[in-house]
Amino acid sequence: MTVAIGTACCVAAGEDVAGDEVVVVRQPPRVLIGLADGLGHGPHAAQAASAFCRYVEDHASMPLEDLLTGAGEHIASTRGAAAALLRIDESAGELEFSGVGNIAMKAITRTAMPIFCSAGILGRRVRRLRSFRFPMSPGDVVLLHSDGISSGFDLAAFRDLDPEEMARRIVDAHKKSFDDATCVVAVLRDRAPA
Predict the structure, then answer these.
(1) What angle do CA 48, 53, 58 make, to 5 degrees?
(2) Contact 20/35 with Cβ under 8 angstroms?
């Protein structure tokens, strides 16, 4: 199996730089996806999100809870961020999730995924980190988005699109103009024949 990924981001009205950032690290057979939403928007939010993503790139093999803890310490001098991590094992067909703050996850999967982000702000005090593991099957769709996207949309309405188009259309249709809006989509597919 292989993971196809698509991302889209829209900058808040009046800003030149996004305070949201996505990081993707492929370490076969695993793919690590991170989304950070720096507090507020503009350059200071971008600094927090970028610092989180660089830390994730440099420490991608760590367990998710340890990775979030370390990233929180790393970005403590910034204004902080909401952030979430997904690690998908392509060979085992397994997803692991952990997050802090108001990053949302939606999924179309054969197995229900009742997940939640820990309360708090990464880079500040976080009471307790948790991670969740679930099996995945080919065709499963998992999406993370920042709070700049209204969460009431039906993911199934976008299911037939490729991941990049899905992310773009969701951002275009459901973004809030006053905040950065970012979406990252991961679809598990059967590996194409060589």
Answers:
(1) 130
(2) yes
* Residue 104 in tokens: 């949302």
| Residue 188, H or E segment | strand 181-189
- Is 147 within 8 Å of 104 (Cβ atoms)? yes
Reference 42, options 184, 182, 179; nearest CA is 179
What SS3 state is found at 54? helix
Pick from 58, 52, 69, 60: which is nearest to 26 by CA? 60
Distance of CA 111 to the CA centre of its chain: 19
pTM of the model: 0.94
Number of helices and strands in the chain (H, E): 3, 9
- CATH-assigned architecture of domain 2-189: 4-Layer Sandwich (3.60)
The sign of the CA dihedral 63, 133, 156, 162 is: positive
Tokens of 2: 């292989």
- pLDDT tens by residue, 149-167: 998 899 999 999 999 999 9
Domain ranges of the chain: 2-189
SS3 173: helix
Q: Is the pLDDT of residue 193 over 50?
A: no
